[in-house]
Design a protein that fits this description.
The chain is mainly β and about 375 residues long. The chain contains 4 helices and 21 strands. The chain has one domain: Tachylectin-2, Chain A (5 Propeller). The protein is about 10% helix and about 40% strand. A hairpin with an 8-residue loop joins strand 10 and strand 11.
Length: about 375
């Protein structure tokens, strides 16, 4: 298959954020940021790993999306619950022998945030990892005004994926579709999609179910596993989903692709990049705590350009951008149109049962 040349451009000033050795909480790595563009600034909430190997979340902001001249000295979100691994009430302290060690070397905490604004609240999904059992998807939120004012009054977090399943890469559409909230998540190897009446999880009885799926593609660059990156962005052509994937041909290399999903039925794939739109090539994507990784968790639109924020080699935060209309046009023209029949609820649930088999970490 001929290699396509996508117009995604790395920022010449990458990495845009690097670890700060003088700060114990982010001395080893900063990576995988969620992003919002609000009130004329790009807001990043990024994963940080420090001297204790516990993942916490930091904050930085920028007026132009590239030069981050605000970066707070303390984390804005730290583990608070037993399922995040550091609460004194946890019967199982963080263990360095866990078979589920996450990317970036972290041994527990809050990982890989995604941000979605819905009306007057900012919802944050992330991976909660207690250091010994299956990583699971979790949800918290904060008032929009509090977020902009840097008043970090986060709602009590809740687990939203069931026990006994490695469930990661969760993000929420910024608006309802046919009266339902739409949640993307990942149980190896596919992207799963749920439609929900509300986002009121209790942490004990209500879980994501995996009702629909977007599959891997045999023979393509994304044949081994796929996962949603940032929350999809609505365009006139459809929902633009930036995702990451691994192929059987290069099983140790995380690459970035794009899909276009139907605006009224986001389980329907209209187009999908036949080749990655970004893959590890720069030194900061190939050299770090985990080599050959570009891992997107945030994206915003400023003017005519789409900005993608990603972790490089599980150690630094990077940015790339592309003309949005140009990306959509190329995706539609060359996107290996991959419309899929509506998968059944039963099929999605079978995926969960398969996911219960014990595995190593599936980042």
């Amino acid at each position: 298959m001929a290699q396509l040349r996508w117009a995604v451009e790395r920022f010449d000033g990458n990495p845009i954020l690097e670890p700060k050795p003088e700060r114990r909480w982010e001395s080893r790595a900063v990576l995988n940021p969620g992003a919002l563009y609000e009130a004329g600034r790009v807001h990043l909430v990024y994963r940080a790993i420090g001297d204790t190997d516990t993942s916490v979340l930091g904050y930085a902001s920028s007026a132009d999306g590239l030069h981050f001249n605000e970066r707070l000295e303390e984390p804005i979100y730290v583990p608070r619950e037993p399922f995040e691994g550091v609460c004194p009430a946890s019967p199982h302290p963080v263990s360095y022998s866990s078979s589920y060690m996450s990317g970036g070397g972290g041994m527990g905490g809050c990982e890989d945030p995604r941000l979605t604004r819905i009306e007057d609240r900012v919802f944050m999904t992330y991976v909660a990892y207690d250091g010994y059992s299956h990583p699971r998807s979790a949800l918290s939120s904060i008032g929009y005004d509090d977020f902009l004012a840097r008043k970090w009054r986060w709602q009590k977090p809740m687990l939203i994926s069931p026990p006994g399943v490695i469930d990661k890469n969760t993000c929420i559409l910024p608006e309802k579709v046919n009266g339902k909230y739409v949640v993307f998540h990942r149980v190896f190897p596919d992207i799963l999609i749920d439609f929900l009446d509300d986002l009121d999880f209790d942490g004990t009885t209500k879980w994501l179910k995996g009702e629909f799926k977007i599959r891997t593609r045999p023979g393509y660059w994304d044949s081994r596993k796929v996962a949603a990156g940032p929350p999809p962005i609505k365009t006139e052509k459809g929902w633009l989903l930036i995702y990451h994937a691994i192929g059987e041909q290069a099983p140790d290399s995380y690459k970035i692709g794009a899909m276009l999903l139907d605006n009224q039925d986001p389980t329907r794939v209209l187009a999908r990049s036949p080749e990655p739109i970004l893959e590890p090539q720069a030194w900061y994507e190939r050299e770090g705590l985990k080599s050959n990784v570009v891992y997107p968790c945030g994206a915003v639109v400023i003017g005519e350009r789409l900005f993608i924020y990603y972790g490089g080699a599980d150690r630094v935060v990077c940015a790339a951008s592309v003309n949005l209309d140009g990306l959509l046009e190329q995706l539609i023209q060359t996107g290996a149109k991959a419309s899929i029949p509506a998968p059944s609820v039963r099929e999605g649930r079978r995926q969960y049962r398969r996911g219960k088999r014990k595995r190593g970490a599936c980042s």
